[in-house]
Amino acid sequence: MKLWAGRFKKELDPRTNDFNRSLPFDSRMYRQDIMGSMAHAKMLGKCGIISKEDCNKIIDGLKGILADIDNGVLQFDDVSEDIHTFTEGELTKRIGEAGKRLHTARSRNDQVALDIRLYLRDECDTLIEMLKEYVGVIAEKAAEYSETVMPGYTHLQRAQPIVFGHQLLAYAEMAMRDIGRIKDCRERMNVSPLGSCALAGTTYTLDREYVAEQLGMNGVTQNSLDGVSDRDFVLELASALSIIMVHLSRFAEEIILWCSGEFRFIELDDAFSTGSSIMPQKKNPDIAELVRGKSGRVFGDNMALLTAMKGIPLAYNKDMQEDKEAVFDAVDTVEKCLTAFIPMLDTMRVNATNMRKAASFGFINATDCADWLVGQGLPFRDAYKATGELVARCIELNTSLEELPMEEYKKVCELFNDDLYNAIDLDKCVRDRTVLGGPAPSQVKFQAENLKKRLEKI
Question: How far apart are CA 395 and CA 401, in angstroms?
């Protein structure tokens, strides 16, 4: 039976029912729906709104339903409109009249607002743990490759020497901020809207704080209209998930480049690569490509949520049913991406020789050459110009700054001497960048260890 039966004289058209029902996707919130109902029933009993006997019957009945769904004994039907209808109908079937008292002082509006908060709260916890594992893998890899020299890039052009560990740690810092955003979102969503009812609260004397406490929530919503009519916490989570996918997609793009024959910086494990149906030599970074592609899917979910919410007046509107499929899909997609990405990253092999070879070309120590001149007393702008002329000369002679004869240096500036060659040595260039957050091996090792300590505090 529909929870809203009584006003209507005709049965709902099957086509309308199929279009209107949300059980196929909101059934995943069954645990949260039941836990919320149990807390609500306890409060009704505590406040004397229902009898202790009915309260106990309701709670025992809900526990039985939860256990049966968990064990696969109880299946969701093809008729119930939503998870709330299904649970209440099953409860009434099992315990009789007492089941009909569960919905006292509650609407599906505040009930679903609670369910989605509880469900997404749990998913936030899962996401945080997955991101922590991801950062942990990066920290281990960064420490392992803290002395592996490679070119750093701007505009996809070789720019300055760094170490591979430093490059990896950049993505770890992004992920740490992602964790922070998820934690912040979790904090804001973790308040109970129960007691808001349809929009205007109730004349029953409720203990809303007791319900929130039972559910491990931080408090209650302060306005009944707001409690049932906003989904900004859903929008916030979808936005945070989109940013996670931006970061994963950028990392995936670099992995794809590094796997290519033009770079050959890394090789992915066979377990996380695929081949070609026609070209037997191919080893494709499909996991990274899929992660990159799925970012657009999460962005689409985010935009769908924003669009669904942007024009609806207070309070609840049926449009808000559209929040679930989009945010569920965004959460599922990010979790699936992390599930594949983490072991792919953990098992990749690094070609340090090719990284070092790439660093030897492209004049990535030119800034160090200019800095050396500054140390000899030349203004930086003049040092910059002189080094640019030297790079042009190297290109003409098809050589590098390290191999350019000193007489060529002195043609440009008399301040040059043989000490320069030590200053522009790639290993020294990297070692000397000991500024906090820099790419020196000593700094990268420190950053990796510090990252592990930061993870322990989350």
Answer: 10
Residue 130 near residue 342, CB atoms below 8 Å: yes
pLDDT at 134 over 70: yes
For the annotated catalytic residues, the residue numbers are 155, 276
Domain residue spans in the chain? 14-104, 109-147+163-353, 358-443
Over the stretch 31-81, which tens digit does the pLDDT of each residue have? 999 999 999 999 999 999 999 999 999 999 999 999 999 999 999 998 899
Of all residues in the chain, the percent with pLDDT exceeding 90 is: 91
- The architecture that CATH gives domain 109-147+163-353 is Up-down Bundle (1.20)
At the second CATH level, the architecture of 358-443 is Orthogonal Bundle (1.10)
- Beta bridge pairs of residue 237: none
**Mean pLDDT of the region 362-371:** 91
Q: How far is CA 300 from the centre of its chain?
A: 15
Q: Which tokens go with 346?
A: 């953990």
Dihedral over Cα of 411, 415, 418, 423: its sign: negative
Q: 52: which 2 tokens?
A: 């202790």
- Kindly indicate the confidence band of residue 6, based on its pLDDT and cuts at 50, 70 and 90: low
Tokens, residue 92: 């009434």
